[in-house]
Design brief:
Radius of gyration: 14 Å
Number of helices: 0
Order of helices and strands: EEEEEEE
Strand order of the largest sheet: 4-5-6-7
Strand content: 35-45%
Number of domains: 1
Largest sheet: 4 strands, antiparallel
CATH topology: Thrombin, subunit H
Helix content: under 10%
CATH class: Mainly Beta
Number of strands: 7
Amino acid sequence: MAAWSAAERPVPRLLVATADALLVADCDRGGVATVLRPVAGGTDTGAAAAAIDLAVLLRQRQLLWLSRALELRAAHIDGTNLTKVHSEF
């Protein structure tokens, strides 16, 4: 069996969440987009709060995650348009 990414919808991607980063890997082209990466010494650098829970909205091409600071954050699946959706503090 073979698949061609130009004909596949959605394009095959792998979401990789580590203790240090949230990445989206293009399985066909081998490219990797960094969605968030915590910065040493900082508690909040926009999108750089480490994710403790994650959701993907495929149709909207959005990632949603809960940061360690208990903030709900969002970004496009390619890592752009980083947004803080909600914060308790």
